[in-house]
Structures are given as structure tokens and as C-alpha cells.
Amino acid sequence: MSISLPSNSPLLQSNFTFGVATAAFQIEGANQLDGRIESIWDRFCATPGKVLNGDDGSIACDHYHKWQEDIDLIKSLGVDAYRLSIAWPRLMDKEGKANPKGISFYRNLLEQLKANQIKTFVTLYHWDLPQHLEEKGGWLNRETAYKFKEYTQLAAEELGQWVDVWTTFNEPWCTSILGYGEGIHAPGLKDTVKARQAGHHVLLAHGLAMPILKKVCPNAQAGIVLNMSKAYPADNEASSKMASLYAEALDNHFFIEPLLKGQYPNIIKALSPELIPQIEEGDMDIISQPIDYLGLNYYTCNHAKWHPELKRQTILKPVTEVEYTHIGWEVNPESLTQLLLELNKEYALPPIYITENGAACDDKLIEGEVHDEQRVRYLNAHLNAIHNAITEGVDIQGYFAWSLMDNFEWAEGYSKRFGLVYVDYETQKRSLKASAKAYKELLCSR
Ligand code: FCB
Is the Cβ–Cβ distance between 287 and 255 less than 8 Å? Predict the structure, then answer.
């Protein structure tokens, strides 16, 4: 089981960055320690029926205590970079003042990564909004964007020295649509129209944070991470073709178009004007200022069919036989290449990093080994898909496997394992899976 790329692949050149990724809430634990305040995910986990098996983030991978060991682990994989997130509720108290213990946790972590020559990709918001801000409306409240600006200022001033690449937001689609539209993620609200307003406020917050990052950290890169999938027509009906375009507008272009063109998609304006958020004067200029890079998280693709009442329906099961991962997501590496080429045609893209990509597998640790053959194939196929996109002209500068290790997979709790490294949650022992070994072998062969 190995990962191989064409020997002349740009991915194997020294300027291509390989990394692994995690997020604070998914790995840290210690959610009541050292002044960390409550986040919307603590509240969501504590609400019966929201997270599978009632799992929560109180211990997770205990990374808050095991961070040194985890840096050794990261280092051992031969990666160039590590993508992590900072927990807003750990860095700042309710009054908006710095939490010294939170700051020193991240400072130590980042300092140690730099001491190990590992580049740091730091996300400011990977979904853990302080609960007290949710009580004032969370992302439905425009004011939250200005609170995010204050948090960015603090993070940049206190930690900027050790950050190579800043990300304002991870996946605004998940925050707004899953969190405020579908109720699947915290805070668990279900209002499709308001969810779009939440999305606008997230984009606005991104735009408000960008100049701060550029000013306080002039040597770092700054940008945002979007999750995207292609949607294919589920069948040959003309209306399904329409549904697929509409699905891509709602899921992808609603977020990328304001960032890169300063407007929301026309197709949404035409088909469901109620989904276009309220925009104040100047918002679109704030949102669309230049970014140094765009991060893209890619896992799967969708199949859409028109539903006259819902105005669209995305069905997951395609007619032909395809492979799925343990979380039920279709494996389709060609669709990653296609997505990248289409985006490149449609937009003047900044350099791209693939900031997340990976597979959930039903991993079993047997005598210290995990034979995650599907994950190795998945990584191999997607890295080659990226190779193909670069060959066809897309400027892609790096790739991060999701995830460094198994962790709290949001509404799925600990039931879904995405790690290259297996975590035994009873003992907190970490074991390299076959995929970690294959990834390491590829990286060390460069
Ligand atoms: C992405 C999230 C990440 C992880 C993967 C599987 O949407 O950014 O935290 O849960 O999915």
C-alpha cells in the first residue's frame, strides 16, 4: 500500500507544502480548564439528541495536555506544515480581555512547531463561537462580525509572530447552513433564510479581519477556507441539470463569488431572492478585498434533482455504483480535478491550498496496526487528481490531509475516524495507521 505520483509531479517539488490538519474543538479537550469559557459546541453536545452517543469535547484527544507528544508525532510524519485552529473561547474572556493561560498554551504550541521547522497554518474560527455571543444572536447578529474583529486583533498581536499563514474562517457554509439552516451543527437552528444572513455576517467578519492580519502580521499570508463539492445532475432530465447548477450556486458560489467578485450569484437572485442577505453599504467591498490564497476543503460530490416545491433536492446516491467511505460520502477524485478547473475558469483565483481532504474508515487496531487500505487509495487518488489540476493550469501550492489523528467528528461524535493516526480514546495512545506510513514515505521520498 503506497501513494505514488508521477516522478516529475509539481507536488514533489520543494515549493509544494504538505501537511496535516486538525481543529481545536476536535482534539484539545480541557474545555473547562485554565479560563476557557463555554462555546456553542459545548452547549450543543450537552443538548440531548444533537451529537451521536452524547459524545462531547471534554477530553477529545487530550491534546491540551499531550501537545508536545503530538508535535513529535507531526514531525515524525515528515510534513512541512501543520494546520490547526485557535479556540476563541480559550483566548478571550467574556469581557473581551485576553486569557493569559489560553495565550500561553497557543504560544508554546506555535513556538515549538517553529522550533521544529514546521510551518504554521492557523485558523481563527473553526466553529467554536463563545456561547455568550450566541446568546446575543451568534452569526445572525451583525455585531458578532465586529466581535470577531476584536478577537482577530488579539490573536494577531499575541500569536502573530509564530504564524506563517492565517485563515479567518474554516468553511462558512458549515457555520451558516449546517448551524443556522439545517440544525445539524451548533447552534442547531433551522431557518434557511436566516442561515444566509449568518453566512453574510461570517463573510463580513472575514473581510473585517483581513486588514488587521495584513497590518499586524505583514509577513504572513492571510485568506479563508471554503468547502466545496461539485453537484452532478442525478439523471438526464433537463431540470436535474438546472438543479445541479443551482446546488453549486447555493453551496459554492454563494461563498466564493462575494469573496472574489463582490456579489452574490445571479441564479440565486433569480430563483430565490429571499436567500439573498441584507447587505449594508460597503459590505461587498469589505468582503471582496484581496486574499493571499484560498483554501479548499474537498471530500465528495453531490447529485442533484429538481424538486418543484423545495426548489432543489440533493440526493446522495447516484444511479451508477460508486464507492463510499464510512461516513457515507462518495469517493470521486475526478470531481476534485473538475471542480478546480471550473473554478479556475470562472474566477481569477489566488493561489490555492487544499486545506482538507481525507476519508473516514471503519478502522480497527489489531496488534498495533491499522490496515486502512481504503484511506491509502483515497489519498493516492486525490493527490493524483490535484496533480492533474496543476498540469492543466491551476495554481495549487499545498495539500493537508484531514486529519492528523482521529478526533471528535462533530455531530458524528467519535464514531467516525478520519485520522492518519489512530487514537485509542481509553488510553489516548496514538498509533500510526498504514495511511500515515504511506504518507510519510511519500513525503520523505521528495
Ligand atoms: C470538514 C471540517 C473538519 C472535519 C471534516 C471531516 O467539514 O472542516 O473539521 O470535520 O469535515
Answer: no
